């Protein structure tokens, strides 16, 4: 415990002790008084659904109030929620205005804004131009894009993700359970609604545009780092018994300066090692929706340096794992 514990610190102590009602009362009462930290903490609770109900609409309002009260992280998160459409309709222009306001006093927001201002976007945050696709294989369908991301965007993803990395997990093809497995020996993180920022959302929209899909079809972006000897053995990206299947995968390469690590497709006798900012897209399913076994692929072992990539699995239909767009029936903040 810090020498000067915050409301969030004290609430965490109470939760660890099993005093849930006391913790909720403490934070809610401080939030009603306008305490920025308490407002942010209560918003986070409503995102994660513990120890209060999950409610993205309420979280969005609370992040906004926390930002107005001076909480810099909450101000950025509020902008992200407005851009994503978490708890209400998405509004890129309003989100951008919020980020510009935050950037006047927050260097982190200012750096994000600089990257976004360098993008060629329409009023909804969608790209106005894209690099052309080059077919690398017909079966499975593999397309490659040169410089889909800029060097600055790649560096931003690495910086954002590096503190969040944990050992990677896989989905068991028989049980559907997630667990560590020797098949995949990288480190990774999922950039969900709290971890991502408006730069990430703009890049997600760019990947959607490149694959002619809607951004809402994509799962949260996953960033991965492979060290020497680490790999992802041959696998396919489909999920067992899933009605809304992963129809397509996008992989973007975030750095150079490593050896090995090619993305290989045995069925097509193809191995790709993209340069920084390059991306590939490939189809995982057959026209009838079944998994295309020819889409099996591997991340070959890295032999020198560190390999950074990001992956987005794109479902065949809209996909909302968090319940972001479930309208909130609540208009009160606390």
Would you mind describing this structure in some detail?
This protein has 334 residues and is of the alpha+beta class. The chain folds into 2 domains: 7-117, Serine Threonine Protein Phosphatase 5, Tetratricopeptide repeat, CATH 1.25.40; 133-315, Jelly Rolls (Sandwich). It is built from 9 helices and 16 strands. It has helices at 7-16, 20-32, 36-48, 56-68, 72-84, 92-103, 107-117, 151-161, 198-210; strands at 133-138, 141-145, 166-167, 170-171, 178-179, 187-191, 221-226, 232-235, 246-253, 259-260, 263-265, 270-272, 279-283, 297-299, 302-304, 307-315. The protein has an 8-stranded antiparallel β-sheet, with helices on one face. The protein has a 4-stranded antiparallel β-sheet with strand order 8-14-11-12, with no helix packed on it. The chain has a two-stranded antiparallel sheet with strand order 4-5. A hairpin with a 6-residue loop joins strand 4 and strand 5. The two termini are 27 Å apart. 41% of the residues are buried. Residues 329-334 have low confidence and may be disordered.
Identify the notable features of this structure and list them briefly.
334 residues, alpha+beta, Serine Threonine Protein Phosphatase 5, Tetratricopeptide repeat, Jelly Rolls, 8-stranded antiparallel sheet, 4-stranded antiparallel sheet, 20% strand, disordered C terminus
